[in-house]
Structures are given as C-alpha cells and as structure tokens.
Amino acid sequence: MEEFHRILRPKGILKITTPHFSCVNSFIDPTHRWHLSRFSFDCFCNGHELSYYSDATYRMRAAQIQFSGGRFNRSLVSRVANKFPEFYEKRLAWIFPAWFLYFELEAVK
C-alpha cells in the first residue's frame, strides 16, 4: 500500500478487486495469501484507530461487496451486505457467500 501511495499523484485513485473471504476463489487460488473483508483497507484511511501502522493515507471513495448468481443474490443479499457490511460478514457471509470486493481509494498527500 505504501508503494501504491508513493507512485500515485495527489488525489490519484487506486482501484482494487479481490475475492471476498467467503468466496471459494479466495482459498483455491495459490496467489492469495490473505483473505480480505470489506474492512481490510479501512486502516489506511484518515481517522481509523489503526492508521498509525502505515504512512500511506487514503480516502475511501467506494467499497462494495459483489455477488454472483441469481437475482436473489444480486438484489436482496447485495443490498443488505452493502448497507450493513459488519452484520453481513459476521452473520451471513457463510450462508450467502460473496464473490469479490471492489474498492476505490484516493491518495491523500
């Protein structure tokens, strides 16, 4: 995250997609060493209680949990997961697994 921050110009946008921890792809792809959640990049944002771990500072522009499958997953579950991400990840993620996460982070310099 520090290297991305270094090469981005001020207000440059970093776009990230990664499998959600509840997705089978997070576990079967050998290049995935960490299993990420909707909150995985919050610590790089101003005001987060753990922001002191990194000198790279970002502003969260977008954070979405994406689903695949039928209309049920794309509509009702998606709306609940994105409106209440903590509830979704603690209570529903293993019942209705997500497909991937999408983030847009703006470099703060």
Describe it for me?
The chain is an alpha+beta fold and 109 residues long. It has one domain (2-107). 29% of the residues lie in helices and 22% in strands. It has helices spanning 2-7, 24-28, 71-83, 85-92, and strands at residues 13-19, 58-66, 100-107. A three-stranded antiparallel β-sheet has the order 1-3-2. Helix 3 (71-83) crosses helix 4. The radius of gyration is 15 Å and the shape is globular. The model has no long low-confidence stretch (mean pLDDT 92).
Outline the fold blueprint.
Layout: H1 2-7, E1 13-19, H2 24-28, E2 58-66, H3 71-83, H4 85-92, E3 100-107
Antiparallel strand pairs: 1-3, 2-3
Helix pairs in contact: 3-4
Overall tally of domains: 1
Strand order in space, largest sheet: 1-3-2
Please mark out the parts with pLDDT under 50 across 5 or more consecutive residues, or reply none: none
Give the end-to-end Cα distance, rounded to a whole number of Å: 14 Å
Estimate the strand proportion: 15-25%
Order of helices and strands: HEHEHHE
Q: Can you count the beta strands? A: 3
Going by helix content, strand content and strand pairing, the class is: alpha+beta
Tell me about the biggest sheet?
Answer: 3 strands, antiparallel
Mean pLDDT: 92
Give the helix proportion (percent range). 25-40%
Number of helices: 4
Shape: globular
Question: What is the rounded Rg?
Answer: 15 Å
